Amino acid sequence: MKKVSPSIVQYFQKIGWASYIAGLQDTHSGNMSMRIGNRMLITRRGSMLGFLNDYDIIEISLEKNDSGVSLASSEIGIHRAIYRETNGLAIVHAHLINAVVLSLINDEIVPVDVEGSYTIRKVPVVSFEYGSGSREMEEEIPRHLKDNKIMVIKGHGAIAIGETMEEALFYNSVLENSCKIIVGINSLGKKADDFKPKNISEGW
Amino acid sequence: MLYGNWGKILEIDVKRKITRIVKPSEEIYDKFLGGRGLGVYLYTQYASPLNGYALSEGNPIIITTGPLTGTPVPTAGRAAMTSRSPLTGTIFTSSSGGISGASLKFTGYDALVIIGKSEKPVYIYISDNEIGIEDATALWGKNTIETTQNLKEKYSGYSSIISIGPAGENQVLFASVITDGARGFGRGGLGTVWGYKNIKALVIKKGRKKPRIKDKEKLKNVVYEANKSIKQNPVTSKALPELGSSFMLDVVYFDRALPVKNFSDNRFPTIDRIGSTALQEEIFENSISCWGCPISCGRICHDNEDKVSEGPEFETIWALGPNLGIDDLVFIQKANRLANEYGLDTISLGGVIAFAMEATERGILDFGVKFGEKEKIPDLIKKIAKNNGIGQDLKTGTGNLARKIGKKASYFAINVKGLELAAYDPRIIKGMAVGYATSNRGGCHLHGGYSAGSEILGLPRRVDPALQISKGTLVAKRQNDSAAVDSLIVCQFASMAVSLEIWSRILTAVSGKQYSAKRLSQIGERIHNLERIINLKLGFTRKDDSLPPKLIEEHLGEEKIELDVMLDEYYEFRGWSREGIPTEKKVLELELNNFL
């Protein structure tokens, strides 16, 4: 096992801090990774994304286990499956509070605000018997991310892919804001569904 | 039944003056889509032999459309042209906007394959019920504008005319093929192949055959989403429509990545004289669109002879401006017009003149022209196109010319595999370094994955241009995506706003088959790998995935390019050996084993 370069550590720190300060994580939630060739750099199990150090970033093969697997995020299997099955080069998983609220009562989330509609359009919500790190999740999550940038695990949080971690973080952030708006509309006694863009509902 | 594509290809033998309709299997369309992918596949079927010279009878010219061409999908009017390049020796696909792609699609053919070599100059005309090969002796020697006007008069109602100018006839190795006197299959010298085969022009009458669409209602909805993305993205909704591609000159310079004087510097104090504002205020006449394009990035401008013509695009302003030490926009537009009339690729033209200027200033060989001497450029362009005087040397491109000169001239010959680099300095934008090095058609920004899209424009999010780790991976993935987009065929500018997820939904609606972003990217990967396999057969190896020594050794104050490190990562991501050869596992995964 070897430490990653300082420029990469700084990049992880920037994304991790942004996700924390934006309220997309609790103190110890979430994980993130980026693909480099046939390896990945992934955050350490139990690390605080808002306060990462160089020893919190683990380099590991996309296919074979080495000693790094003992330190890497417990959802490494999902990350590997996503890199194997989708177009993503980076992954950010976050525990979005409002997205989780909506996931408990919906099978999909359709942003009604302009930014959300433009950026993520329609987000699938998927339910699992075991809500973290299961084989079922390794099979199902990549299937949804083949054609969506972000999806929500019911009652758990969101997982997004991108060419970069910043892109994947952005989709998490946009989704959470869109969910806040939907929750806000509903709390005013209106139906957010009435504001759904027509073409997305029918064409996506 | 096929949707999107017709399942019909027209084979034209200009030697025997016969034509034949060929119907590829549905599996070929599933694997290669159309455009660049179909062109590369057809090259493997028609090149005789596969490793024959570019300027030989056995090198086919393949013009393709894609499954989206001619549909209501934004920017789906383009065509692609594939052949072996006489400039690079690689497999080479070039694409063009305008109306030629849609016009060809409406004739009921997906592609034209031109084989053989005519004894005398000819032009080809096709419509949805006529095909002809006619004598072009009277057109030989005419420039592309004259040729277009002449044929338009003769064939009233024919919608698209594709032609070469004197440069193609005179075997200038970077001669282009011009569509309707304006847009071009610009790069790689495909016009030279036309000239070698004595083909002066192709006249296409827009037919009445509209492509079949499987699910029109779904397509309408997803096209709405695509157009919404185009309208909401600042590059495609504001910068390109209002300023044309020239805005990139300002942006790339702002990020210190615009090469100056043959990549000797990145400072050009008078940049504002040739930027987008100057273009709009001083030479702009009108904007123009390709078929089916809501962006309208094309510019119609005047020059110092009060002649009005299309352009100049960003790359041309750079190649004939800062790269030559010239800051006169009116003059640049004149040089651009001359290049289009003669049928020359403006990027390679600027590259070879910049090389001559540096050779002169270094005292290696006196070409009689130095940086900034703009008054000498028109005569130089004419000499190159007409194969006169020093034009006989310059017409061979920087790579060939540097080898002929010797004396370490290759040090500052700014090309990769013979193709002159574009307007992005890879010492500043590190992704472009591995992109230029690995592009299958030589030092190309577009086939190199165009990492500047994220490194400069921040689309979809900005990536630190200075970062080297992770760039091999990013570029390989973007090359795959880009090969898929080039096979649909849609415009790379539109793809700055429209994601692969949207394109895949559009293709699903048109074809009736289920596509995802991942599946499209995999098809792009197959196409890129097939191009690589062809290039390996043509003799290219890892040592050709290189950069000009000047760009490795002169740092511009930035961290040195670690090309080997980035290449290793790039090959690893691609599933290639350290020598840059696709492994058996990768070849089987992509179902390319029949092409080994």
Oligomeric form: heterodimer
Give the structural class of chain A: alpha+beta
Number of helices of chain B: 24
> Roughly what percent helix of chain A?
25-40%
Return the domain count of chain A: 1
> Describe the biggest sheet of chain A?
8 strands, mixed
Mean pLDDT of chain B: 96
CATH topology descriptor of chain A: L-fuculose-1-phosphate Aldolase
Shape of chain B: globular
The CATH C-level class name of the largest domain in chain B: Alpha Beta
Q: DSSP helix count of chain A?
A: 7
Q: In brief, what are we looking at here?
A:
The complex is a heterodimer of chains A (204) and B (596). Chain A is α+β, with helices and mostly antiparallel strands and 204 residues long.
Protein architecture, described:
The complex is a heterodimer of chains A (204) and B (596). By secondary structure, chain A is an alpha+beta fold. Helices cover 39% and strands 18% of the residues of chain A. Chain A has a single domain, classed as Class II aldolase/adducin N-terminal domain (L-fuculose-1-phosphate Aldolase). Chain A is built from 7 helices and 8 strands, in the order αβββαβαβαβαββαα. An 8-stranded mixed sheet of chain A has the order 3-2-1-4-8-7-6-5, with helices on both faces. In chain A, strand 7 and strand 8 form a beta hairpin. Chain B folds into 3 domains: 9-204, Aldehyde ferredoxin oxidoreductase, N-terminal domain (Aldehyde Ferredoxin Oxidoreductase,  A, domain 1, 4-Layer Sandwich); 257-420, Orthogonal Bundle (Aldehyde Ferredoxin Oxidoreductase Protein, subunit A, domain 2); 430-496 and 516-595, Aldehyde Ferredoxin Oxidoreductase Protein, subunit A, domain 3 (Orthogonal Bundle). Chain B is built from 24 helices and 17 strands.
